[in-house]
Design brief:
The protein contains 11 helices and 2 strands, in the order H-H-H-E-H-H-E-H-H-H-H-H-H. With about 280 residues, it is mainly α. One fe (ii) ion binds next to helix 4, helix 5 and helix 8.
């Protein structure tokens, strides 16, 4: 092991890896992973938590509160969306790197979004909810790792370009309400991924990048499951409260997602995730 790997292993142990034993609290492990800025260390910590939870090594206890904002690495520099450099859709090396970099950033933030979902709302929502969103977090960590490796094969890496600063804002706005968080993060933002990924796969394949197309196909398959978990827990919560899930979702969108939905929609992938058209039909701006 190099010095760096030893340090990494240490971080994983300190943030919920197998060294903590049976009594370690799932919320402490999650909070530690959220406060891990280094991308590789965050990936390892997150996958370690998901594994330890599956193996019963973490207790269902929530004494530790989640940070308002997770730690961020020094790079990428985060810019407001309006200040992000424009990037074309053409197949130039520069455009391609910019595309993979922006996807890597989305997956990096997605790790934190899934960890925060489990750690912030797990106590109220129960063990199945924690299991579902820790498995999402582990998927996001794998997606990030695949994309960072892709960037490295192209001579770049995550952090080399500026990235969008807006992705965590939704989490802050919905930190007080699990229904709002579920309505927006999995059921709007991740669902949008289901719409835009198939044309992206076709474009990448037409540029001769079969490896890139395979990575995106794997991500798409996993994201259907993520939207499915979000929808399942949202619908169950609405049923408990005897509210129509569709009506509740639409009213939460008015409050927390003023941008309006964009089509066209991938109806079949959305339906596979339980997000039927009666949620979103007629809402596209
Ligand atoms: Fe993902
Ligand atoms: Fe996801």
């Amino acid at each position: 092991m190099t010095g760096e790997q030893v340090a990494l292993a240490e971080t994983v142990r300190n943030s919920g890896g197998s060294g903590l034993g049976r009594t370690a609290s799932v919320s402490s492990a999650i909070a530690a992973a959220l406060m891990t800025a280094d991308p590789q260390a965050k990936v390892m910590a997150t996958r370690g938590i998901a594994r330890d939870w599956r193996l019963g090594r973490l207790s269902f206890t929530f004494a530790r509160s989640m940070p308002v904002r997770p730690a961020r690495p020094a790079e990428p520099v985060l810019l407001p969306p309006a200040q992000m450099p424009r990037r074309g859709k053409g197949g130039s090396e520069r455009n391609r790197i910019a595309m993979w970099h922006s996807l890597a950033h989305i997956e990096y933030v997605a790790i934190d979004l899934a960890l925060d979902m489990a750690g912030r709302f797990g106590a109220a929502m129960g063990e199945e909810f924690v299991s579902d969103f820790l498995s999402v977090a582990a998927d996001e960590a794998m997606h990030f790792a695949l994309l960072d490796r892709k960037l490295r094969l192209m001579g770049s890496h995550y952090g080399a370009l500026p990235a969008h600063s807006g992705l965590w804002e939704t989490a802050e706005r919905t930190a007080h309400d699990v229904a709002a968080r579920l309505a927006i993060v999995p059921m709007v933002l991740e669902a949008r991924g289901l719409d835009v990924t198939p044309p992206m796969i076709a474009r990448v394949r037409s540029q001769g990048d079969e490896n890139g197309a395979r990575i995106l196909t794997r991500i798409l398959d996993d994201e259907i499951r993520h939207v499915g978990f979000g929808t399942k827990h949202f619908v169950a919560r609405c049923r408990d409260e005897r509210i129509s899930p569709q009506k509740r979702w639409k009213s939460l969108l008015k409050t927390y997602f003023r941008g309006g939905l964009k089509g066209p929609f991938n109806d079949s992938a959305r339906l596979a995730a339980g997000l039927s058209q009666d949620f979103y039909a007629g809402l596209a701006s």
